[in-house]
Design brief:
Distance between the termini of chain A: 36 Å
Largest sheet of chain A: 2 strands, antiparallel
Helix content of chain A: over 70%
CATH architecture of the largest domain in chain B: Up-down Bundle
Order of helices and strands of chain B: HHHHHHHHH
Number of domains of chain B: 3
Helix content of chain B: 55-70%
Radius of gyration of chain B: 29 Å
Oligomer: heterodimer
Number of strands of chain B: 0
Largest interface: A-B, 48 and 34 residues
Order of helices and strands of chain A: HHEEHHHHHHHHHHHHEEHHHHHH
Number of helices of chain B: 9
Structural class of chain A: mainly alpha
Strand content of chain B: under 5%
Strand content of chain A: under 5%
Number of strands of chain A: 4
Shape of chain B: extended
Number of helices of chain A: 20
Shape of chain A: globular
Strand order of the largest sheet of chain A: 1-2
Radius of gyration of chain A: 22 Å
CATH topology of the largest domain in chain B: Four Helix Bundle (Hemerythrin (Met), subunit A)
Distance between the termini of chain B: 84 Å
Largest sheet of chain B: none
Chain lengths: 481, 203
């Protein structure tokens, strides 16, 4: 029976194996190294993520592995590198925060590593089982991270809320998977696509498709499955919020693309309607609901809901240009979000973190440098040329127009105009509002400065990087066609 | 013979399930729950799914139901008050259940299963039950073909374990903890202090 295992194919899952074994080894290191456990484990976790990234690059073969439950292609390679970068930067960004808030726990970087393992599986999934197990591995670690500061009631509430709603969405996802398995007899994406192209599709199958998309839409916090996002973002410790907003979104979006373009490719027309609806709803809600927010983390939550809507515009197009747009959008979104959160984590006064948007008033006189960086980030999030955020939106809208989805593109442009209001309002507060508030922030930690600097450099000089990035994203998008 | 046992198990399952929601004493409710589990295990056994039957007993009766009992006994919740008038919702609940069932039947009636989707082209052919036992059949594919999923499921359980420890283990300062080394290392010289007390003056 041993011959049934395709041992040579294990090489394709090398990054996941590195991460899984490494995180188990780090657990041991953490338990036995005593006082300095957190620093040591954090450093080693970063090294492990780098090793995983290198091993992603070293896999040159494309194709299926592990009983065609696992796929490696240019798309997987690109998205995995992106997820690894996101996780590594968030671990780095939390070092100083954890120390100052006094809840250093060596389990935190390990949970991030395990969650990243789940994301890699999601990105590479070629079977409903891999999809589900990857998603659960990723989310379970996230629930724990949300509640990891157990002295804070808000964080506990966030963790509980996230857990209960996440369990509900997993239930929906599983229900959809069982229906699809029942009506096609397959769990692999290839098998499902084959079964779908042959026979007439039944109502039960469409039910299954809708449930699966609902389950994944929850993970990317697209409307109408977004309810948890503002509360969880606000309650969780800020570096962990940054983590939620970056890498898991990339992985879940990759999963969405895999399921729609892989398993359900023959029934494009059916899922296109669903994607168009959640895309429009997310863009509108992201634009309108963010206006009244006073807490910067809640604002970022609504902003990320909106951004997911824009990214889905590209997927709704369903063309190669559209998928290219999605990948490009997620790349730029991740860089912008991490930069913004690096700045938010840096908003710390002597007696603790500041999260009120009002506190940014007069930032220009207190911290001219931070004010300039924040302005660039906000302009980019709003999509003002020549910053990166503009190019992200440009690619998805052009793809939508090419696919004759004019209504979607028009609504998208209009809601990004509405969305620009609250981003630019922050800029107005920073530069033009008078305030008696003169207390300065404590100096930023080096790692935050580094992330912020790289992020702003990327978004403001994007027209230089655009060429090489575009080559890679279009190679990644080509793996579906 | 099978029919007799089927009706026996089925009747007791439904009856004890009803008792679970209607019993006044929460401990009785949990005991009836165990009875329901055991009888559904019997139903599985009748269908030749002996592995599921044993799993139900080991996991649900052995672990989950006992956990329920612990929770019921440890938490000082006034269940009687909580459940007061609980059964008065029964007619509405039954109505909702009936409507849902009718809808499901209507929808299921119109659904068309793909030809050959059931049994025919399923991912894995079902082995002949006369040749292998349930456990052997499951083991044969779980540890070979599905080893990857098995390992990932193991990772998920590892995360659950880490999570439970991270969220509950809390080293509070000023709490005296047992230190067995210290206890064993004590001897009369370190543990007992002899004082001379002058009579009539107190300590």
């Amino acid at each position: 029976m041993l011959s049934a295992i395709d041992l040579p194919n294990l090489a394709m899952a090398a990054p996941e194996i590195w991460l899984a074994l490494g995180s188990m080894a780090l657990l041991m290191v953490g338990v036995f190294s005593g006082r300095n456990a957190t620093t040591l484990v954090t450093g080693l976790s970063l090294a492990l993520l780098v090793i995983a990234g290198i091993s992603v690059y070293q896999i040159e073969d494309n194709g299926y592995a592990l009983q065609s439950a696992f796929i490696m292609d240019p798309f997987a390679r690109f998205m995995k590198i992106l997820a690894l970068i996101g996780s590594a930067l968030t671990i780095a960004m939390s070092i100083n925060y954890m120390r100052r808030e006094q809840f250093e726990k060596f389990e935190y970087p390990i949970l991030v590593l395990l969650s990243t393992t789940g994301m890699m599986l999601m990105i590479s999934s070629a079977s409903m089982l891999t999809l589900y197990l990857g998603l659960e591995l990723q989310s379970l670690a996230l629930y724990v991270c949300a509640a990891i500061n157990r002295d804070s009631t808000k964080a506990s509430e966030a963790g509980l809320k996230y857990f209960v709603l996440g369990a509900l969405s997993s239930g929906m996802l599983l229900y959809g998977i069982t229906l699809v398995y029942g009506y096609t007899g397959h769990t692999t994406f290839v098998g499902i696509a084959e079964a779908l192209s042959g026979s007439d599709r039944s109502v039960g199958l469409i039910f299954g498709l809708a449930f699966i998309l609902a389950g994944i839409a929850f993970k990317i916090s697209a409307v109408p499955f977004h309810m948890w996002t503002p509360d969880v973002y606000e309650g969780a410790p800020t570096p962990i919020t940054a983590f939620f907003a970056a890498a898991p979104k990339v992985a879940a979006m990759a999963l969405m693309v895999r399921v729609t373009m892989g398993a359900f490719e023959p029934v494009t027309h059916d899922w296109q309607q669903i994607i168009v609806f959640i895309s429009i709803a997310s863009m509108m809600l992201g634009a309108f609901a963010a206006i009244g927010q006073t807490n910067i983390k809640r604002l970022m939550a609504y902003s990320s809901i909106g951004h997911m809507g824009y990214a889905l515009v590209g997927l709704a197009a369903g063309t190669q240009a559209g998928i290219n747009g999605v990948i490009m959008y997620m790349t730029i979104y991740m860089v912008m979000t991490l930069g913004t959160f690096a700045l938010i984590i840096g908003m710390r006064k002597k007696d603790g973190m500041v999260e009120d948007i009002d506190d940014l008033k007069g930032l220009a006189t207190r911290h001219p440098m931070l004010a300039v960086l924040m302005t660039l980030l906000m302009f980019s999030l709003a999509g003002i040329p020549p910053l990166a955020g503009f190019f992200a939106k440009y690619f998805v809208f052009v793809a939508a127009i090419e696919a004759n989805l004019f209504a979607l593109a028009v609504i998208g442009v209009l809601s990004s105009v509405v969305g620009a209001y609250y981003y630019i309002r922050i800029i107005k507060m920073i530069w033009f509002d008078e305030t008696a508030n003169t207390e300065k922030y404590v100096p930023m930690a080096t790692e935050l400065k580094l992330v912020l600097g790289v992020s702003v450099l990327f978004i403001s000089l994007f027209y230089i990087f655009a060429g090489p990035v575009f080559d890679r994203t279009s190679a990644a998008a080509a793996s579906f066609f | 013979m099978t029919a007799i046992f089927f009706y026996l198990f089925a009747t007791i399952t439904v009856a004890s399930a009803f008792m679970v929601i209607s019993a006044r004493n929460p401990v009785h409710a949990v005991l009836f729950l165990i009875l329901a589990f055991v009888n559904s295990a019997g139903l599985f056994m009748l269908n030749g799914a002996e592995f599921l039957a044993l799993l139900l007993i080991v996991v649900y009766v052995g672990a989950v139901a006992v956990l329920f009992l612990f929770v019921v006994m440890m938490l000082d919740v006034d269940f009687v008050e909580l459940r007061e008038g609980f059964l008065q919702y029964l007619p509405v609940g039954a109505l909702v259940g009936f409507i849902v069932m009718a809808e499901l039947l209507m929808v299921l009636g119109t659904w068309v299963f793909a030809p050959g989707a059931i049994g025919g082209i399923a991912a894995e052919p079902i082995p002949n039950m006369a040749d292998v036992s349930n456990i052997e059949a499951i083991g044969n594919i779980l540890y070979t073909k599905y080893i990857f999923f098995f390992q990932v499921a193991g990772l998920i359980l590892l995360v659950a374990m880490i999570g439970a420890i991270v969220l509950t283990l809390h080293h509070r300062p000023n709490v005296r903890r047992q230190n067995i080394n210290d206890q064993i290392a004590r001897n009369p010289e370190t543990a007992i202090e002899i004082k001379k007390v002058e009579s009539g003056k107190g300590v």
